[in-house]
Every structure is written in C-alpha cells, then in structure tokens.
Amino acid sequence: MGLYDTYLAVRHRLHEADPPAHVAVVITERDLLEQGAYDTLERFFGWAFGRGAERVTVLVSVLDAAVVETLERELRNVDAPRPIAVRGPGDTERADAPIQVSIGLGGKREFADAVREIAADVAAGDLEPDAIDEDTISERLVFPEEPDLLIKTGAERLSDFAIWQSVYSELYFTDVNWRDFRERDYLRAILDFQNRKRRFGT
Q1: What's the mean per-residue pLDDT of the chain?
Q2: Residue 158 has what pLDDT?
Q3: In whole angstroms, what is the distance from residue 2 CA to residue 113 CA?
Q4: Which residues pair with 171 in a beta bridge?
Q5: 22: β partners
Q6: Residue 85 has what pLDDT?
Q7: What does the DSSP 8-state code read for residue 179?
Q8: What domains can be seen in the chain, in order of their start residue?
Q9: 61 with 26: CB under 8 angstroms?
Q10: What is the pLDDT of residues 40-66, one digit of tens each?
C-alpha cells in the first residue's frame, strides 16, 4: 500500500461515521472479459469485508445472452472469502449469501416477476390485496437486501439494476474502469459514503 493509500485508509479508520454494511458494484460483461478482471473482483471482496462490509452484491450488466452461462461458471469458481450465491436471468430462487452476484437479471424484470407472483397469490386467495405492502414485494425479489452504497465503475449510468433496492442507497460513480479499479478507488468510495448524511427519503 502506497503513501496515498495509507492516508486514505487512516482517514477511513478515524472517521466518526460507520462504513457501509452492504456494498454493491455494477460492472459489465465486457469488464469481466478483460484480463485480470476476476483478480480485481477477488481483491474487491477483500477490501469490502476488510473495511466493515457484511454483504457484497455484484451486478453484472449483460448485452449478449450467450455469455451468461460462461459468466455464471466463472463467477461460481471465484476465490471468494465468504459463501457466494450466483443468479442469472432465469433464476427465481432468492439469493441469500454474504456475496451475491446477479448476471443479467435486470431490475425491471425482477420487479415484474415479484408483481406477477403477488397477483397469482391474490387470485388463489392466499393473499388479501389490503395486506400488500413494501415487505410483500421485497420478500419476492431474488435480491431483496438494500445496498447502503452502490458503486458504478466506468460511466455515470446505473443501468437496469436494483430499481427497488437502491431507492435509499448512496450512489457513487467513478470514471475508473473495472480493470483499473484499485483499493484507493474503493477507499474513496467509502469515504464519500461516510461524508454523506443519509436521509432515507426524508
């Protein structure tokens, strides 16, 4: 760790605000095709858990459906420090692990699937319409947990991810591409988070 990285680490450690407990990062399939991309991902897990995170979510934007199977296989084999749950476009099973990976499962589709499930429960008489609330929807999402901090690398565009979950998330955009993302970039992100005053819609 260089001098500047040490400076950032000390600022983070001495900060009076807590670090994010749940960190999410949005990357693209192209990012994962770059040499060293999975090494960066493994280091990212280490940075996050080493700096106070309890959960990490990786949201992978996919344009070419043909690469989904390959990405799923590679991501399941990542050397992760905690249990990992990988879900793709056709998966409906809830992801419940310290590390969660979404491959091409867009937020609009995830939300629509949850609404259809609720409608089916109402039609079957298993759920009263008046009983539907925010928790009813969250319980039916594949990725129900809300990130405290959502990092987008490479561009200031969130993509179709975590539409429901990121309502109160702090968003951090960096022009650093995933292949070049370093610990100092992660430290900048969490320091930015610690310097903000979260309002949760108030």
Answers
A1: 90
A2: 64
A3: 47
A4: 150
A5: 55
A6: 96
A7: G
A8: 22-106+145-195 (3.40.1180.10)
A9: yes
A10: 999 999 999 999 999 999 999 888 888
Q: What confidence tens digit (pLDDT) does each residue in 142-192 have?
A: 998 999 999 999 866 666 777 788 888 999 999 999 989 999 999 999 999
Report how many helices (DSSP H) and strands (DSSP E) the chain contains, helices first: 7, 6
- Grade residue 200 by pLDDT with cuts at 50, 70 and 90: low
Could you tell me which residues come within 8 angstroms of residue 163 by beta carbon, excluding any fewer than 6 positions away?
A: 107, 108, 110, 111
pLDDT at 91: 86
Report residue 44 as tokens. 């990212």
Angle between helices 37-50 and 183-195 (to 10 degrees): 40
Total number of residues shown for the chain: 202
Helix (H) or strand (E) holding 55: strand 55-61
Full strand arrangement of the beta sheet holding 170-174? 84-87, 99-103, 55-61, 22-28, 149-153, 170-174
Say which amino acid occupies 174: T
Strand-pairing partners, residue 101, are: 58, 86
Largest CA distance in the chain: 63
Amino acid at 159: S
Structure tokens at 37: 């991309």
**What is the pTM for the complete model shown?**
0.89
